[in-house]
Amino acid sequence: MKVCLLNDSFPPVIDGVANVVTNYAHILTEKHGAEVLVGTPEYPGSDYDSYPFQVVPYKSFDTTKIVKGYRAGNPLEMRSATKMIDFRPDIIHSHCPVSSNVLARLIRNETGAPVVFTYHTKFDVDIARAVKDKFLQQESIKALVGTISACDEVWCVSEGAGENLKSLGFEGEYRVVSNGVDFERGRASEEKVAEDTREYDLPENVPVFLFVGRMMAYKGIPQILDSLKILSEQGTDFRMVFIGKGADLDNFKEKAKEYGIDDKTFFIGAIYDREVLRAWNTRADLFVFPSTYDTNGIVVREAAACGLASALIRNSCAAEGITDDRNGFIIDETAESLAELMTRVSRDLSHARDVGQHAMDEIYISWDDSVRDAYDRYGEILEDVKSGKMEIRRKTMTDHMLDVTADVIHYTEKIIDLQKKTFIDLPMRAFEGMRENALDMVDTIIEAQERRNEEMRGLTDNAEKSMMEMYERQENFTETFRQSIKDVIDDARKGLV
User: Fold this and answer.
1) Do 111 and 204 reside in the same domain of the chain?
2) pLDDT in tens, 114-127
3) Of 149, 156, 169, 369, most Cβ neighbours within 10 A?
């Protein structure tokens, strides 16, 4: 099977979805014999040639001031799109509804391969953080739901993620396909734990609480710090370890100092060595994850792989499959509720370890199992398409732009192919140059549109007027685009005659 995986983040960017795509690509290649291509926005200076599968980076522009650490991809960058189309995938799996979904639909239009989309993140929360204007928030959400609805099958990483997608206006069906973890089941050795944690003051029989993830307020970290303040005031000794980095890290350090708990609270940054992370999960007595933002909580399963139980918010996505006091702990979304649980754990560490063992036995899922389920479903989709049970989605109005872009690829390739078949005595490099010129022209037009889009970001005084102007510019751009392509094709045909 030939599988094209698309996501707007991939190493060197490290986040939950980048981790998902990396594991999919490795396991599909190594365990299932699939031929895999990953398409992702390019990050300057990155090495994409060291993977056992093909990675096609496409042009991107710097948006790190808007969304810290991330670049936005240009999905209509033709040279890269051509490579992905020429790969001729059997199935396309997109993991982000922005650039990746546009590119997925472009590839589908040219190859007929079905598009699977996985909904990993509550994008309404991300949009609300990035866009303050309510009208633009609503229009952005509509656009995302529209591009998700254009896919042939939608997967969600949990029931909660699916319900969140429905609440945004998605009216289709979805399938829950859980993510796995790349930890094998089992605890790190005592020697490994001692080696990797020796720099920190961690007395025996003093409870160690652990958080792993981005240092952002929406992860519930303020609630953790407030609960630790309560423990400190009531005289309960503890150690708290935060692993990760993020925009709010300095604020959290200041808050810990303000609360007088900075001597018991360690912010140790991001850890990329998986075995060191396993050692910390083994050393801790309770994994604390009071996030209502996360749709799946891979870190909860990673903790479970090491026999570590988690404290989770009632009715959150991360708490799906958790039975309170059996394979995890369920709390209310308050500092008092978390502090009460931490106090109980502090008084009975052996019980917390028993709950952790049940977590290892009952909620752990490996990436091998998760990707095997996905691979089996790929096969079912392809059989349904072949038998006529599943129809590939009909084109929407937004696909017209994709059609024009696809025409560039089709006709320039056709010209080169015609030259080969009719033995026209012209240097092949002339036709290759024609093709490259056409693609350069497309890039130039797209870059001009990007500049226009940048200008549009400054029009915040009147949101509705700004949107109308953007639509008008988009129509003008599309017409210019079509005429430019027509001119290139006409010149090419005249050259052949």
Assistant:
1) no
2) 999 999 887 776 66
3) 156
